[in-house]
TrEMBL record:
Species name: Microbacterium limosum
Protein name, per record: Uncharacterized protein
Superkingdom of source: Bacteria
Length: 61
């Protein structure tokens, strides 16, 4: 049996926008947590899933 951990984050840490202070902070923390857990829990897999927003009018991510 393979064990793993999946956390969910977002792009607000990379592309902040007005009013995204809380979201940007949390997303940055999730990324740091995943990086640390990957080292500390090896060989258990730790991944982060990030949803992307694509503006269908411009195709910009």
């Amino acid at each position: 049996m393979t064990t793993g951990i999946v956390l969910f984050g977002g792009r607000a840490k990379d592309l902040p926008y007005p009013g995204s202070t809380t979201g940007s902070t949390i997303n940055g923390g999730v990324t740091g947590l995943v990086n640390t857990l990957t080292l500390e829990l090896a060989p258990i897999r730790v991944n982060v899933a990030v949803n992307l927003y694509v503006d269908r009018g411009t195709g910009v991510i």
